[in-house]
Amino acid sequence: MFERLGRLVVHNPWKVIAGWVLVTIAIVAFAPTLADVTTRDQANFLPADYESVQAGELAEQSFGRADQASATIVVKRQDSQTLTDADRTAIGDLGEDLDGAGIDRVTAVLTGDQFLAPNKKVQLVTVGLEGLGDDPELVEAVKEIRERATDALGGTDLEYAVTGDVAMFADNADAFDTALVIVGAATIVLIIGLLLVIYRSPVAALLPIVTVGLVSAIAPGLVAWLAQAFDFQVDQSVQIVMTIVLYGVGTDYIVFLLFRYRERLRAGDDPKTALVAALARVGEVITSAAAAIVIAFMALLLAVFGAFTSFGPGLSIAVVVMAIAAVTLVPAVVSLVGPKVFWPSKSWQRTPKGTLFQRLGKFTGRRPGVVAVASGGVMVVLALGMFGFNTDYDQTGQLPGDTESARGLEFMATGFPAGALNPTSVYVKADSGTLDEQALATYAQELQEVPGVGGVMPGPTGQPATLSEDGNVARIDLLLDSSPYANSSLDLVDGPLRDVAHSRAPAGTTAKVGGLTSAFADIRDANNRDLWVIFPVAGVLIALVLGLLLRSLVAPLYLMLAVVVGFFSTMGATVLVFQGIGDRPGVSFMLPMLVYLFVVAIGTDYNILMIARLREEAKLGNDPRKAADLAVEHGGPSVGAAGVILAGTFASMLLAGVSFLMEMGFAVSVGILIAAFVMSMFLVPSLTALLGHAAWWPGHGDRATVPPPGERDRVTVG
């Protein structure tokens, strides 16, 4: 099939290129942007049967808070001493000024004694806002609030910082926008630099940039169209991750093709015959590799946590488009350029002798047991780091420390419990009639006595419970002693607090625990469930792809086992760096899922390339050890080059300044290096050599066949 496709593309390059240009123009002109369907609110990704979601629905029905955001101005003295009467008067004047300023979307401004910290060092000014936290008009409102606060407190001994959900979104959006620019620029520089070193050719170095740039213009529009058609949201990280995936995977596929093209040129094929032969061999590898990635990403649709679900379709579409480009657009361009794709280097004209990969191949073929133990041992040692693994749900930790919203959290911590900005709200609904305020006061006291609860935030009337207009629903806001994102807070809400809230609710009422901490407790439950479902499903489906490709049951088993060990070694190394050296409380809760998918899916690219080469060498009449020798010699350079490039592109995320992206960049780049240089280059060939013909049972796809025309010169009998 790919040989026929190769002839079609190689002999009609201008038609193929014109088709791609027309499709690109149409999509760029008419498709929506990815920003139209992105969101940063993790709680919006939970299904309706979780308690935090039900509490939010009850809040919306009774208090109208579901569509309301807020901005909190945290004011303290510059010398961090107790606020004076004059200071508190100035803060009150600030509140009055904001209340009467007519700022669009501002619904109310509250301050006063109930917003003064117990140690009297910090006072809050709470600004109610109409709309959702990611509404651009609310971001503009926060900007005006900050400007007016600067004017009102200028010339005083006070300093302030505006924080809260909208302020965090604005700062977070700025951080992600900056990260996108940095990562995109660093990725392009890395790809060009590494390809210049590998091929010594500016043409080969620029080919992935131009090709992936074209695909990058198409994929976001297609994803946005799909998101609108099926009404799903896309996490704000998708754009950055998609950029990295396209450049990384696209460059891999182009490297696979160019290495094979150069090999056939060195064997004496004319340029067009060499390109057709290269595509015939590599097309199956690219398609199988892309299928593995798509299956892994689409397995995310099984998740109940929507942030994972949102990654699946978007990244799958991008990979499919890139794979199609790799077997059509790229060969069309190379067909026009010919061997000049390697200009000015002349290395394509001669086969090098005594290379590092030749020596590594010979050693692997002679001592496969030693190579298997050494490579497997490295992966196992790194995997031991998983014994210290912890998850971190602190979304504010993604913000760079120099943002105003992060500074506001630091100011609050000097006077209020850690959970003051995001109280945990218990909603009590009467089964019939109205609620008894005395019973609610007793209930609030019982909730306050739960270990880990720092206190009850008084309502507008000074009472512990805030009643709805019809008196049928009450809200009790609890301040936790620890950060609302801390694992201890999640344990508290998901355990003792919910137990007491449900069991001690006044007679004839039903209680639901809501708020940010409750949402993340539910997200944790959903995340744990998803890991146990998606991991095995993705693994089984990828194993099926390998089985169909190799016509074997044995090879897919040890290939997937190697990938699983690669996942644990990748996570172990990440834990050692970020929790050990970096002293973080844990790694992002989303990281295990993303690392598993990237390492399993993209790492399987290299396994597919290497195992396909092992089978090819065996079919040419080589015994298992000689096949391993030649596979490392001929497949090793392309795997190594692709691994270095892809690891380099993900490593560029270390420059993002956003902790989640930095963790992901480190973990995936290390995982790719392990997959390429430990697993695919050494462990897989050595295990295949040790297993011999049994590796290909029951299809025995390693049986020697008559070499195809143009490759008889490469037959080496063991």
Automatic annotation (TrEMBL):
Family: Belongs to the resistance-nodulation-cell division (RND) (TC 2.A.6) family. MmpL subfamily.
Membrane topology type: Multi-pass membrane protein
The protein, known as: MMPL family transporter
Superkingdom per UniProt: Bacteria
Coiled coil regions, renumbered to chain: none
Pfam (any one): MMPL
Segments crossing the lipid bilayer: 12-31, 178-199, 206-227, 239-261, 282-308, 314-337, 369-389, 531-550, 557-581, 593-614, 635-658, 664-684
Main localisation: membrane
Keyword DNA repair: no
Subcellular locations according to the entry: Cell membrane
Keyword set, alphabetical order: Cell membrane, Membrane, Transmembrane, Transmembrane helix
Residue ranges constituting the SSD domain according to the UniProt record: 205-336
